[in-house]
């Protein structure tokens, strides 16, 4: 696979289950897998690149991922993505092992909901306001 030009912005997400977490963001956000190795997967969206990086086995052995996932409360960052439909994203998130929270906020530009991926990372989805 060839690597695209430099993304405008990006983030790293560390994963216990690399394949599951990369597939989750591919499907929910509509990202494209542009590179993969045993240690990481690079996903691209229009304005952001996500690198899902495998947590080393000796560290991952001490991490428990529950079903449903347990919210990671101690993260200092929360990322967001814009999707076409929060309802479609909600169905995908549930099917793929994540959770979409019920709270909904509306501004003049977006309708916003928070969600959690299968490993407990909280993120936000935004749908353009009608």
Characterization of the model:
- Helix content is 20%, strand content 35%.
- The protein has three helices and nine strands.
- The N and C termini lie far apart (38 Å).
- The protein has helices at 18-29, 57-60, 86-95; strands at residues 9-15, 32-36, 40-44, 48-54, 80-82, 99-100, 105-106, 110-116, 122-128.
- The chain has 130 residues and is an alpha+beta fold.
- The protein has a single domain (9-128), classed as 2,3-Dihydroxybiphenyl 1,2-Dioxygenase, domain 1, CATH 3.10.180.10.
- The radius of gyration is 15 Å and the shape is globular.
- Strands 5, 6, 7, 8 and 9 form a five-stranded mixed β-sheet that branches. A four-stranded mixed β-sheet has the order 1-4-3-2, covered by helices on one side.
